[in-house]
Write a structure and sequence with these properties.
The chain is of the alpha+beta class and 271 residues long. The chain has 3 domains: 97 residues, Glutaredoxin (3-Layer(aba) Sandwich); 62 residues; 81 residues. A 4-stranded mixed β-sheet has the order 2-1-3-4, sandwiched between helices. Helix 5 packs parallel to helix 7, helix 6 runs antiparallel to helix 7 and helix 9 packs across helix 13. The chain starts with 7 loop residues before the first helix and ends with a helix.
Length: 271
């Protein structure tokens, strides 16, 4: 079976809309390419259609080599939905290739997680939670999935979010994200666990800001929190500061809402 490129648009971009496509940039004069190529072809045959291999001779297609910034060969790129989702350079041993494919080929779970991240970024946490909850229940040992699901439900169900991250092992790659979830859970508990804060005007404003955040009013909540921090940076034993920073990290430091309030937060806590 020939894996040689015929038409890039149809062979790679269009095809990747329904089947992952592994593109091998190579040339006849390249020694490592001669080692890698047969292994890729063997694995493609074993895959039996789960993914496709397309070989692009950089001598015959210098325009494509330039378009994708190929500086050395062999260079391998994995396409899905018309985009490069993973890549490597050089001739990997077969065992490493199998591991690389296992880690990078799209699966229904990975595609759902990718979609959930998009929904979270767009502020559609409920839709993200609907995608992630059944996946997390079916794969409780998946730390990345557990943390992502916790992020999706932390505003609506902090207790369940806490249970999802409770078993994450020490040193997990997702520990930082789990800590962000825990900071939100701790902050959201203020109106019930620390209701006595309402005895002061500052405490009343703080609890109002927390309730606004829980209700999804990020502008109202962050505006209130930054005002509290401007008056007392260490309020509520530092929880106000941790909650504000947790919201920023949850949204992402380049999120428009983070950019809107981070400067005021930074000025308040760095006095």
């Amino acid at each position: 079976m020939s894996h040689d490129l015929t038409d890039f648009q149809s062979d790679v971009l269009d095809r990747s809309r329904h089947t992952p496509v592994l593109v091998d940039f190579w040339a006849a004069w390249c020694g490592p390419c001669k080692m890698l190529g047969p292994v890729l072809e063997k694995l493609a045959d074993e895959a039996a259609g789960r993914w496709a291999l397309v070989k692009i001779d950089t001598e015959a297609h210098p325009d494509l080599a330039a378009q994708f910034g190929i500086r050395g060969i062999p260079d391998v790129k994995l396409f899905s939905q018309g985009e490069v989702i993973a890549e490597f350079s050089g001739a990997l041993p077969e065992a490493h290739l199998r591991q690389w494919l296992a880690e990078n080929l799209p699966t229904p779970q990975r595609e759902a997680m990718s979609r959930a991240r998009e929904l979270l970024h767009a502020g559609q946490a409920r839709a993200a939670a609907n995608l992630l909850r059944p996946l997390a229940a079916a794969d409780p040992a998946n730390g990345e999935l557990a943390v992502l699901a916790a992020r999706a439900i932390v505003f609506s169900d902090p207790a369940e979010a806490g249970r999802l991250v409770a078993t994450l092992p020490v040193g997990s790659p997702w520990s930082s994200d789990a800590d962000t979830v825990r900071a939100l859970i701790d902050g959201f508990a203020a109106p019930t666990e620390r209701a006595a804060l309402a005895a002061t005007p500052l405490g009343t404003r703080y609890l109002g800001a927390v309730r606004a955040l829980r209700a999804g009013d990020l502008d109202g909540g962050l505006s209130g929190l930054t005002e509290v921090l401007q008056e007392k940076p260490g309020f509520d034993g530092g929880r106000a500061r941790a909650l504000c920073l947790g919201i920023f990290r949850h949204l992402g430091m380049r999120h428009p809402t983070t950019e809107k309030y981070y400067r005021a937060y930074s000025m308040a806590v760095n006095v």
